[in-house]
Amino acid sequence: MKKIIVKYFVLLLITFVACKNNEVNGFFPETDIFFMLEDIEEEYLTSLKYKFEDILFAENIIIKNNFLIIGERFLNENQNPIHLISLDNLVYNRALGNFGFGPEELSDTWNLSSGLNENTFWVFSGQNKVFSEFSLNTFSNKPIKQIKQKEDLVNGYELSWSLNGTIVGRSINDNNIFVEFDSTGKKINGYGMWSEVFSHKNLNSFLIESLHSGVLRSNVDKNIYVQVGVNRDFIKILDKNNETIVSINGPNNRIPDFDIISSPMYGPMLSVNRKEPINYIEAYVSDNFIYVLYSGKTPEEIRLSNEHAFNIFVFDFSGDIKYFYKLDESIRSFVVDEEMKKLYGLTTNDKYTLAIFNLPS
Questions:
Q1: From the centroid of its chain, how far is CA 126?
Q2: Do the Cβ atoms of 60 and 109 come closer than 8 Å?
Q3: What is the pTM of this model?
Q4: Three-class DSSP category at 224
Q5: CA distance 5 to 7
Q6: pLDDT beneath 50, residues of the chain
């Protein structure tokens, strides 16, 4: 796809609980890349579907050492938070971890990360702000290490290890798009500024960051970090090798309607109009491409149908769109094995756990 360079300003009417102000500077910098659905022809992918009775609510997934590692949403005290599926025969292998707030327990499985060690992986628990490292080589149910978030890292989320042992992620109430922390939890670097993406005199950095909420995924070996927006349809690609950010907008190319509401407990809070579509809900960074999962459905449409997303856009690291895959099954999270040409998705259909798609050669 040819890069489309556009510069324009979008005015937005915002309703405040105590005041009204229309002086919004929401804009798309001239270096941004834009795309629309008409820019790329879609390819339809069909899947084989599998059900694993031990997994009650599969929420996120990574792939490592010939295992699919699946994190589960908490439903009851007796379930395990982590499940391993053997890729050789797609057979359930074993469960790891225990839900809870005590030592060696997981409050949730907000994010999974391959980490830096060849034979371990990490679970980030958002509620109790703990990193837990698990071994793939032992049958111990417990983590081999846990690290409590502290210092500036307390405000961090969507976190990933980097090659030099630092942590890259997002941070609440921070004007940087990507934030880097050292091993003690102190912020040591920031990449990109939210104020260069959107600004309003009555919006602080917390509210601007909330408008641009979404997941962060990475390829640690390539030093590539990617953020995608749930409320706004943006993709940010940080190449930490040269500290540059590529910005992609699409397919809607607009700022959603939202209100600023007053919360007695938290103060001003941002509320996106529920008639606005959900945009990007997941991403995967391979050695060659960036795969993003796009919904386009409103929260009410998702609630009524339980269908989250059927669309995968594929970009290279320069931001050029390469492929558009239309899936036959709704998924909420996924990983890609480019060598085997497989996409593994966690379905939103209660009849199945996993859908496996063959990617075109």
A1: 14
A2: yes
A3: 0.91
A4: strand
A5: 7
A6: 1-25
Structure tokens at 187: 């912020």
Q: What's the distance, CA 73 to chain centroid?
A: 16
CA gap 299, 91 in Å, rounded: 34
- Assigned token pair, 222: 């390539």
- Looking up tokens 């630092």, which residue turns up? 166
Cα dihedral 127, 128, 130, 134 sign: negative
Using CB atoms within 10 A of its CB, is residue 25 exposed (0-12), middle (13-18) or buried (19+)? middle
For the stretch 60-73, pLDDT in tens is 999 999 999 999 99
CATH for 8-358, options being 2.120.10.30, 2.40.50.100, 3.30.360.10, 2.40.40.10 = 2.120.10.30
- Residue 223 contacts residue 216 (beta carbons within 8 Å): no
pLDDT for residue 30: 66
User: pLDDT at position 17, please?
Assistant: 36
Query: Which uninterrupted H or E stretch holds 208?
Result: helix 205-211
DSSP assigned state of 20 = B
Residue ranges of domains in the chain: 8-358
Side-chain half-sphere exposure of 150, counting CA atoms within 13 A: 5
Reported as a single tens digit per residue, the pLDDT across 142-185 is 999 999 999 999 999 999 999 999 999 999 889 899 999 999 99
List, in sequence order, every residue forming a beta bridge with 178; answer none if it has no partner: 191
Q: Which two tokens stand for residue 192?
A: 């990109």
